[in-house]
Specification:
This protein is mostly helical. Among the domains are: 87 residues, Arc Repressor Mutant, subunit A (Orthogonal Bundle); 94 residues, Arc Repressor Mutant, subunit A (Orthogonal Bundle), CATH 1.10.10; 96 residues, DNA polymerase, domain 1, CATH 1.10.150. Helices cover 50% and strands 8% of the residues. It has 20 helices and 9 strands. A hairpin with a 7-residue loop joins strand 8 and strand 9. Helix 4 packs across helix 6 and helix 10 crosses helix 14. The N and C termini lie far apart (79 Å).
Length: 438
Amino acid sequence: MSNYYHAGLEDDVRHTVQEAFLGEKINIVVATNAFGMGINKPNVRFVIHYNMPSSLESYTQEAGRAGRDNEKSDCLLLFGPEDRGLQEYFINGNNPPYSLIEYAYQEICKAEGSVTEEGLLVLCKSQREANTMSLRSVASILQEHGYADMEYEGGSRIIYPLDRRKPLDIPKEMLEQKREIAFQKLAKIERYAQSKKCLRNFIQTYFGFSEVACNNCSFCFENKAPQISESSEEESDVRKIILDCVRTLPKHYGLYTVLGVLTGASYNNIFEKNLHRNPMYGALSSSPKDTVLAEISALIGEGLLIRSNDQYGVLSITKDGRKTLNQKQKKTLLPKKETHDTNKEKKPVKKKGEMDERVETGYNKTLMDELQTYRFRKAVEHKEYLQLILSDRTLKELAFYLPTTEDALLGIYGIGPSKAQRFGQDLLELVKKYAKSS
Ligand SMILES: [Zn+2]
């Protein structure tokens, strides 16, 4: 038996549902977080969050309804990157901009008598951020600071000013700080939801407790061995491309713009911002969008990428992210001693980061065609995406530096020991064949 519960239900209906649950006449309730408040039922066995809550504080309080009798119980947090949007909406609604508070206060003071909630919405309709939720917050803020008071009349809230001549003087910084903290908390729970570490210890650390031997969360279950397993070279290629993209984009962009750039999407804003001309545009076009999105989320979870704490949620690379990128690229640098005399190879001048500009303009087109055909064959043979077999940049560097030894091959972007083992022989032969014929 099940039922549902939310704050919009009549009091007696809510009461009935609550009693039925406490008395075990029903055993499943689908509810908003309004339900948790009055519930002190020790044997709740399963709490499922369909959306990410606004903070770890809320989450632990809500999930903490499970297993109060110390018996084994489960908590499940379902999360999708779009959950952030809903929470952003709430944060913005609960923290109206100062300009809206000022405007609404002026209107309330100008009005004759008191103003209803609906009336206030009409008075403020020229303000972009005005909606029922944000104006309710405005009313509460004015009340809290002694500028207005509220009454309930026939089920509707009415607001009236306490002194129409009193100029508004609420400390702006305090309001801004509150908003900032809300966004910081959101960023934290978002990291939790995507964490690739022990979930219990994430919470322990957040609340200032020391770590425990958990073995009881989904991460610990899936990773019997305590450390995160090394990702395969293909996986780390995708991750590297994402990190490199976020690092080299001319500005910080939100998750979906970055996703659009990587997958070569034709969104309007990508063309407007000229991002389709970015070298990273379409770098992962052969990977499914969901896979790329999951990888971006994982990188956020691991702290290699970070989303800003404001309403824009733009992505940037963290110190650890840069370290990871550099570490991985170190492997692929051309060994220093390797160069000039016997070899006619050109030496890459840029050790890390962007591709040398000379490569883009100077790579050999004939060899590039050969390499692309080879990559296509391999992709079909291994049922893998083209970019994961060898990235465009790798092919261009091969067609520019023309490596003829295995050492030199390891100096090419994107070729590590495993790629060298899989394709090295073939690639060297292709280069040599081309060199002979030219
Ligand atoms: Zn754990």
